[in-house]
Amino acid sequence: MPRLIILTKGGRIRQVSVSGRLTTIGRNEGNSLIIDSELISRQHAVIDWDGDHYALMDAGSRNGTFVNGLRVDRQKLRNGDMITMGDCEIRFLFDTRELSEADALRLVTIPGTLQALDAAKQPPSSPAAKRFAFA
Hints:
Blueprint: E1 3-7, E2 13-17, E3 22-26, E4 33-34, E5 45-49, E6 54-58, E7 65-67, E8 70-72, E9 74-76, E10 82-85, E11 88-93, H1 101-109, H2 113-120
Parallel strand pairs: 3-4
Antiparallel strand pairs: 1-2, 1-11, 3-5, 5-6, 6-9, 7-8, 7-10, 10-11
């Protein structure tokens, strides 16, 4: 099950599982993922599972939704994509392993960390050790 690792401007970090067809993100209480920030719209974005892949859609937010630094209206998500909304950084992961708070923080703040974490779990000669490179 995919997960989001969220880092807010205040330095809080949390991990949230993505489940169901739609995951709504915003300030309002009715959202699947509530982010308490004035820079996040009440209904900011939606992650949609169509049975084949996940896609992120901006819901008409005031400050926009960004994937890997580019503003998007709709974007297919890949493992390790960095989503930016307002003053929050969110890493999208297909990986099901639970990360320690320190590893989760490194993952959203240090470029290339996903590659390092993945490589640490694989034998050095394994193709999977070179699978992810996000710099």
